[in-house]
Amino acid sequence: MKKKKFSISKMIVNILLIIGIVAVSFPFVWMILSSVKSTADFYSFSFWPKSLDLSGYKYVFEKTDFTRWYFNSFIVAIVVTISNIIFCSLIGYTLAKFRFTGAKLIFLIILSTMMIPTEMLIIPWYVFSSDFQWVDTYWGLIFPGLMEAFGIFLMRQFMLSVPEDILDAARIDGMGEFKIWLRIAMPQVKPAISALAIITFLGNWNAYLWPVIVTNTAAMRTLPVGIAMYGTSDAGGIQWNTIMAMSSLTVIPMIIVFLIFQRQIVEGIALSGTKG
C-alpha cells in the first residue's frame, strides 16, 4: 500500500479553501444567530445569543406585511424565470438553427443591449408603465425582465451544439418545428436551462432598484424593498434582530433551490463559461 506523499501545495490550497469557507459563511451564521437574539442582546455585540429569543420572528409574522412581500417576490421570480426559459430558448433556437437574412445583425443588436446599464432604462420603463397604468401592479414589476439578452445569448450558444442530424431526422419523421424545439432541442441543453433558471430566479428574488421605483404601496413591495422600508421609515427605527429574522427567512428558497439543483447549477455555470 503506497503512502500518500505530503504536498505543501495541497496543504496551502486546503488552508485557503478553509479561510474562504469561513469568510463566506461567517456573515450567514452571524445573521442566523442575530435573528434569535432579543434587541438588548443584539446590542451587546456578543457573537452567541445569551438565550434563544424568537420574538423577532413572531413580530415579523404578526406585525408586518412580510408574508405578502414573500408572496410578491415569489410570483415575480417564478413568472420571470419561466418566461425567460421559454422565450430565450425559442429565440436562441431560432438564431442558432435557422439561416435567414439579418440573423447575425439581430443577434448583434441583442448583444449590444447588454452594454446598456439598467439605471439608464429606469426612466423609459417608468414612463412606459405610467402610460399603460402598470405602476404598483404585478405586471409593472414583471415586464422588464420577461426576456433577457444574456439568456438569449446563453441559449443560442448551447443550441449551436445540438446535432443537426437529430433535428433533420425529426423533420423527416414529420415533426413540426415547435415539437422539435420542445422534445429534441430542449432536453439537449438542460445544463443551460438550469443555469439560466437559477441566475434569473436569484436576480429577480434579490432585485431592489426597479421594484422600489414602480411600487407605491406596502402591499405590492417585494422582499428587498419591504425589508429596506421596514428598517427605516415603517418601523420608526432600526430593529436589527427583526431585520435579521426577515433576512434569514428570505434566503430559505435560495438554499432549497441550491440543494435540489446543486449538480445542474454547477454544470450549467461551468459549461456557460466554456460556451461563450
Automatic annotation (TrEMBL):
<protein>
    <submittedName>
        <fullName>Inner membrane ABC transporter permease protein ycjP</fullName>
    </submittedName>
</protein>
<keyword id="KW-0813">Transport</keyword>
<dbReference type="Pfam" id="PF00528">
    <property type="entry name" value="BPD_transp_1"/>
</dbReference>
<keyword id="KW-1003">Cell membrane</keyword>
<feature type="transmembrane region" description="Helical">
    <location>
        <begin position="12"/>
        <end position="33"/>
    </location>
</feature>
<feature type="transmembrane region" description="Helical">
    <location>
        <begin position="105"/>
        <end position="126"/>
    </location>
</feature>
<keyword id="KW-0472">Membrane</keyword>
<keyword id="KW-1133">Transmembrane helix</keyword>
<feature type="domain" description="ABC transmembrane type-1">
    <location>
        <begin position="70"/>
        <end position="261"/>
    </location>
</feature>
<feature type="transmembrane region" description="Helical">
    <location>
        <begin position="242"/>
        <end position="261"/>
    </location>
</feature>
<dbReference type="GO" id="GO:0055085">
    <property type="term" value="P:transmembrane transport"/>
</dbReference>
<dbReference type="InterPro" id="IPR000515">
    <property type="entry name" value="MetI-like"/>
</dbReference>
<feature type="transmembrane region" description="Helical">
    <location>
        <begin position="138"/>
        <end position="159"/>
    </location>
</feature>
<feature type="transmembrane region" description="Helical">
    <location>
        <begin position="69"/>
        <end position="93"/>
    </location>
</feature>
<comment type="similarity">
    <text>Belongs to the binding-protein-dependent transport system permease family.</text>
</comment>
<dbReference type="GO" id="GO:0005886">
    <property type="term" value="C:plasma membrane"/>
</dbReference>
<keyword id="KW-0812">Transmembrane</keyword>
<dbReference type="InterPro" id="IPR035906">
    <property type="entry name" value="MetI-like_sf"/>
</dbReference>
